[in-house]
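Anyone up for a design puzzle?
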C-alpha cells in the first residue's frame, strides 16, 4: 500500500532537468529469473511460482523450440544464420492458457503446444539456440514479456543476458540421472515415446552443447541462488522461491 503510494507520488515529482521522473526513473516490472539445465524442474516450478505470485510467465525454451520447429517445417538450413534470423522475424508466435487451463502455443496460428515438447524439437531448439543471430533476434521478444505486476522468466540465460538486473535469480540443478527420470515420467504421462537410456543420453548431449557454446552458455549468474532439487519435491522448491520473491511485492498467499 505504502509502496504503491510512494510510486504514484514519485511519478508526479519533477527531476532537476525538468523532466518528469517517470520518464527517467520508471520502475521496470520485477522479474524472477529461473535458469538451469534441462529437466531440473524449471518449467513446472516457473509455472507454479508465476501462478502463486499472480505474475506473467516467459517460457524462453518454448521460443527456441518454436524456432527449431519452424526451421524444420520450412526447410531452413540450421547452418544458415541469416536465414534463421529472418525466419524469427517472420514467424507469428502466441502463448495462451497455462496455469490450470490447457496450454496453447501457436506457431502461425496453429497450436503446436504438444509438438514442441518432443525430443526432436528439443534437439532442434538446442541447435538453433547455439546461433548468435537467432539469440539476438529473440531478445526483444523476450523483453516484451516484462509487464506489471511482474514476470517469472524460465530459461538458460535469463539472469545472465536477458534480465541481468532481475532482483531475484535462481539457478535450479539436479543430477543428470534424476533429470532424465523426471523427463521420462513427464513424456510417459503425455503418451510420448522415449526410453530412459535415450533420454539420459539426450540430456547429457544437450547439457554439453548448452554449456560449451560460445554465446550465452548455460551458467549461473554470479548473483544467482543455487538450488539443487535432486531430493526436493516440486512443492518445496516452489515454496522456497515464492518466499524469496515475497519482498518484491508478488501475491504470496
Ligand atoms: O527449456 P527447454 O528444454 O524447453 O529448452 C530447449 C532448448 O532451448 C535448450 O536445450 C537450450 O538449448 C535452448 N534454450 C536456450 N536459452 C534459453 C532457453 C532455452 O538456449 N533461454
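Challenge accepted. My sequence:
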Amino acid at each position: 500500500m505504502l509502496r504503491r503510494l510512494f510510486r504514484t507520488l514519485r511519478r508526479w515529482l519533477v527531476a532537476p532537468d525538468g523532466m518528469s521522473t517517470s520518464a527517467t526513473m520508471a520502475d521496470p516490472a520485477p522479474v524472477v529469473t529461473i535458469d538451469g539445465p534441462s529437466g531440473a524442474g524449471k518449467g513446472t516450478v516457473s509455472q507454479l511460482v508465476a501462478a502463486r505470485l499472480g505474475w506473467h510467465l516467459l517460457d524462453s525454451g518454448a521460443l527456441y523450440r518454436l524456432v527449431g520447429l519452424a526451421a524444420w517445417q520450412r526447410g531452413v538450413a540450421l547452418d544458415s544464420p541469416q536465414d534463421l534470423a529472418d525466419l524469427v522475424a517472420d514467424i507469428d508466435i502466441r502463448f495462451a492458457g497455462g496455469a490450470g487451463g490447457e496450454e496453447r502455443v501457436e506457431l502461425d496460428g496453429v497450436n503446436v503446444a504438444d509438438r514442441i515438447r518432443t525430443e526432436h524439437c528439443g534437439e532442434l531448439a538446442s541447435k538453433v539456440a547455439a546461433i548468435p543471430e537467432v539469440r539476438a533476434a529473440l531478445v526483444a521478444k523476450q523483453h516484451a514479456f516484462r509487464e506489471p505486476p511482474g514476470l517469472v522468466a524460465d530459461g538458460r540465460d535469463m539472469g545472465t543476458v536477458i534480465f541481468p538486473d532481475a532482483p531475484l535469480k535462481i539457478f535450479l540443478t539436479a543430477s543428470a540421472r534424476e533429470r532424465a527420470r523426471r523427463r521420462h515420467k513427464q513424456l510417459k504421462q503425455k503418451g510420448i515415446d522415449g526410453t530412459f537410456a535415450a533420454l539420459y543420453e539426450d540430456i547429457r548431449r544437450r547439457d554439453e552443447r548448452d554449456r560449451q557454446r560460445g554465446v550465452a552458455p548455460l551458467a549461473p549468474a554470479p548473483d544467482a541462488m543455487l538450488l539443487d532439487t535432486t531430493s526436493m519435491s516440486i512443492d518445496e522448491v516452489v515454496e522456497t522461491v515464492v518466499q524469496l520473491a515475497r519482498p518484491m511485492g508478488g501475491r504470496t498467499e
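A detail worth pointing out: Residues 29-244 form a domain with the Rossmann fold fold (CATH 3.40.50.300).
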